[in-house]
Design a protein that fits this description.
Radius of gyration: 29 Å
Helix content: 40-55%
Oligomer: single chain
Number of strands: 28
Shape: globular
Largest sheet: 8 strands, mixed
Amino acid sequence: MTAADVLLTDGSLAVIRTLTPGDAAALHELHESASDESVRMRFFSLARRAAHKYVEHVLESPSTLALAAEVHGRLVGLATAEPIDDRSSEVAFLVDDELRGQGLGTLLLEHLAALARDRGVRRFEAEVLAENSRMLKVFKDAGFRVERRLDSGVQVLEVDTSVTAAVQDAADLREFRSEAHSLAPLLAPRSVAVYGVRRDGTGIGATVLRAIRDGGYRGELIAIHPSAVEVGGVPALPSLTDHAGRVDLAVIAVPAHHADVALADAGDAEVPAAVVISSGFGEMGDAGAELQHGLAAMARRRGMRVVGPNCLGLVCNDPEVLLNATFSGSVPPSGGLAVASQSGGVGIVLMDLAGRAGLGVRYFVSLGNKADVSSNDLLAAWYDDPEVTCAALYLESFGNARKFARFARRFSERKPLLAVVGGRSSGGKRAGASHTAAAASSEVAVRALFAQAGVIACSDADELVDTARLLSGQPLPRGRRIAVVSNAGGLGVLAADAAADHRLDVVEFSPSRQHALGALVNQTTGTANPVDAGAGAQPEQLAAIVDTVLSADEVDAAVVLLVATGDNDIEATERALAEVGAQHPTIPMTLVPLGGPEPQCEGVTTYRSAAAALGALSRAAAYAEWRRAEP
């Protein structure tokens, strides 16, 4: 098998790979340094000679499957499978005492089972001392079907290594927890160092430094400069190894051919995370791809998580952090939306649209070339974050599409996930390849993937922000029945036609509902749905109409179209509608104010057009249907 990067429970990186003859000395050292208790649990004896004899056997036996685990280049674990017959093997494990409780044994079991399945082995056997609770937990945590029998104080386990839903769920949930730990220093750093800051204040590095400083960052900020002691009012050091304290995040904005030097300096200072803004990597062809590969390999060896390269940076809007480590413009208000974008330019547009719409954002991560951190990693990290209520992605490639399908589905079962995919057309693919070295799938494949995983597909940034605003501020609709209320009959007609295009049902109200509305409308007969309140409808009157519409179980959502006239008060109407909405918290209500001032009232989700409101409602209704469906 090829080497696989894995995350331990505390978020640190390890590598699982096939054992080689060159591992002999390290393997003997692993067994020699193990505690007496670990040796007894593994070999049922305190004799080290048996342990070293087993090491020699494993290294010489061509039929034994053996995997090694490394952390920072040090061998810290061994998993072996000795053939019993063509379909079964006896397995055993040893993990460095310092890594107890980090999930390494379970990860070794998972990878050993996968390797064995490739060889046709479907059953493992293991002999475990009854008091070896740690080893018994390894098998339990993996999710495999296990049968046990007790034989003279030894638990004999028979393990079916088939990948069931339980096995996959256990593995994914472990990875979710590990990703959250691993990416914590990246997403909410307590200290940041910026590389590539010019003393004269020009260039991207200086721009990022100013954005962090002026954005009110709550943590410690350091500039890395070869000779300056201060840059832009920020303390400067020639190397991060000269800094006495811990630094969580390095932001690297130096030319591509110097990025490895900066990353190595951060690694020497044991910085756990980096954002490489520098361009000139995989998007530039083979030579750039080689540079990118070297950068990623260096980060793995040093246990660092890396965003980028060729990216815009990241934002953490946690009020306790307030980090804007980007070279873009303004940052939206704080809220529950988490955004990941493979394109920096699209990210700028999304942030601008969110800011204009008042949509609150918790995190923004520009993924760039995805040398390490991907959308899958972020979905895992955001899954259990109580402050993230919704996530949005702009992607130009999927990387591990099977993993995306699983992670996206699990995330969507808990929180809404929206996505826009670029590069679906032939022209888009060409642009994506030169932009972020990406190649997306066909539109049909993408839509099929999204439909299976519960992802809310959007065609562009506007649709994404429109839908996110609805999902952030309103409940999910229980169905597709909607009411259209307006003070201009023609607009109601057009909205009803548009609703049909979005597969929304403008239902006809019951006779009793129409009778109740007839007493409220102003010189019109439009009470069947759409409701024409009349051009002269006042705030209290319009609010009473909407309250009447929502009070019966006849609709699942409402769209209110409000045209400014010389005879109505738009702002007062918005406030009245907000009060009505608060009285019906389970039914989404949207407002489309036309011809008046920009809406300012909290509690009302407003749109620039009926089409935007109806599109967002339709996408929310489809997501609600997916949530209600049997898995």
